[in-house]
RNA helicase (Hesseltinella vesiculosa), 630 residues
Amino acid sequence: MSDMSLSQQQGNGPKRYIPPHMRSSNFGSSSTGSGWGQETSGWGSNDNGGGGWGEEPKRNSRWNEGHSDFGGFGRPNNQWNPSPTQFDERGSYGGYRRGGSGDYAPRKREDGKGYWKDGVHHIASRNPRKEHSLFGSPTDSHTGINFDKYDNIPVEATGHDVPNAITEFTHPPLDEHLLSNIELARYTTPTPVQKYSIPIVLQHRDLMACAQTGSGKTGGFLFPILSAMFTNGPNPVPQDDRPSHGYRPRRAYPEALILAPTRELTSQIYDEAHKFAYRSYVRPCVVYGGADIGFQLRQIDRGCNLLVATPGRLVDLIERSRISLANIKYLVLDEADRMLDMGFEPQIRRIVEQEGMPGVMDRQTLMFSATFPKDIQMLARDFLKEYVFLSVGRVGATSENITQKIEYVEDSDKRSALLDILYAQSAEQGLTLIFVETKRMADTLSDFLAVQGFPVTSIHGDRTQSQRESALEAFRTGNLPIMVATAVAARGLDIPNVTHVISYDLPTDIDDYVHRIGRTGRAGNTGLATAFFNRNNKNIVRDLVDLLKEAKQPVPSWIESIVREMHPGASGGRGRGRGRGQSRDYRRYNDYGGYRGSGGNGNGGGTGGYGNQDSSRGHQQRGQSKTSWF
C-alpha cells in the first residue's frame, strides 16, 4: 500500500483514492483538490453542448451507510432516480416508510409517478410524451353526435337520504389533481351515471348502480375513489400484519379492490385507472388468469394501492400470501350479475367474507352492472349496507342511438347474407363486430371471411391471452376492422368506433343480445345492429319484439306473425319480464317513499327518490361539452 496516493496529497480536499493508471492525468492533478478535471473529464462544463454531465455530481452524505449516489446502472441521481437520503427506513410494501405513520415514498421514483410523504401528496413532473400516450391528442373524440339526448335519460334512485346529483365535476369538488387529469382527458361534463354516483360515493354510501352499457360506469366509481385516495393518502399497514426485524413484507396491501368477470374487462378498467392516477402516488395493478403470473407479481412488487382482478387469479395470489385484503377501504364489483351468472359466487364470497377483508360496516362497497335481476339483487344485499339503488336509463333495454335491423335468414343462407352486408359497407364505415355462439364457428367464419379477402380476426375463450390481446389491438386500431367473437367479448369491452354489430347467431337470452348490440352506439354515437333471425330463435321472439318497441325501432310484420302463431290472441309484446323489472329496487317499496323518475317527469314524494334536477338548467353549452364515456 506504499504506492497508494490520496487526494489530500494534492490539496486540502477529502480523502479519495486515485487509481494508479490515472495518477498522472488531469483527474489526479486538479488544482482544486477535488480530483475532477476541468475540461478533459466526463463532468466538464459542457459549454459546447457535448455529452458531458455539465457539473461534478453531488456527493451523498450517507456514503458510509451503504447508499450510493448512482442507481443500479451507474447513473447519477435525478428526479427519476432519487437519492435515498430523502427517505427514511425501508419499510412498507411499495416504498420507504417513516415509522408507522403511513407516509410512503417510492424506492425508485418512476417517470410520471408521485409519492406521499409527511401527509403531503407530492405530484410528479409532467411528461408530454407520456401524456400523449395516456390521453391522446387534442383532436381525439370523446363524445358522440347525440350527446344532448343523454341529458334527458330517466334516472331513479332509492334509499335513505340520497345525495343530490351534480352537474359538473367541481361541485362537489373532486381532488384538484384528479380534475387536472380529467381535463387532460378533455372531459368537461359528467355522464348521467356519474352525476349521481360521484356524490353518493363521496358521501361514503354503498351503491348498487344499474346503467346502460357505454354510459360511463367505470368513471362512476373510479373518479370518487381516486379523489378520496389522492386527498387522504395511503393507510399504514395493519399492526398485526407489520413485518418484524425490519424486513419488507412480500405482500401487497391494496386499499381499493375492483373485481370483474373477464380478462378483457379487467385490462380495460386498469387502463382507465392508470390514466387517471397519472403523476400521483397511487399505483394501479391488474391480475387475471391466462397471463404470466410472474410478470404480474413483479408489477405488484413495485407497489399496489388499487388492484383490478378476476376472482380466480385473486384467490390464487391470496393463497400465495402475495395479496392481503386487510387494508381494503373500497370494494367494487363490476358486471356483478355476470360474475355471479358465470359461477364466481363461491370465489367472491370467499374473497369478501373469509380472507381478512374489513367487514361490510368498515368498507365501502359498490356494485355496477347493466342488469340486476331480482335474484342477483337478493344475493348482492349480503355485501352492502344501507345502500343507494341507482337506475340510470332503461336498465336491460337498448339505446335509441342504435338502429336495429332484424333479418329473416335460414342457417344455410347466413354466409351469403353476411357477404352481402360486408360488401355493401364502405371501407370508412368503422369497425364491424360479428357475434357467433360457438368457438368453432368463430374460427370457421373468420377463416371463411379471410378467404373472401376481408381483413378479419377472431376472439374466443380457447385463444391464449396474448392471442386475444393481439386480436383486440388489431381490431381497435383498425388494422383488422372486422372481428368475429363469442360472448367473451360481449360484456364490458369499450372499443371505440364500432359502428356495426352483427348477430350472426342470436343468443338464447335476451340480455345477452342487449349486451352484444351495446358494443355500438356508445358515448352517444349512433350505431347499427343487424340480427339474423329464424324459427330456431323463437324462444326470445317476444322479448325481442318488446325490446324493439322500447327502443322505438320498427317491428317487421313477419316477426309479429310469428308471435301470434306462438301465442294466439297476443297483440305483440307482453312487457319484458326481465326488462323494466331489472331496474327496480327489490327492497320493500314503501320503505323509500316510492320511485321518482327524472327528466322532468317525476311524480312522487318522499325522501328516497329524487329526480333529474339538472334536466332544465346548467346545460346551456351542451354543444361544446365532452363527457367521459368509459
Summary: The first strand starts at residue 96 and ends at 97. The two ends are 69 Å apart (CA to CA). The longest helix spans residues 217-232.
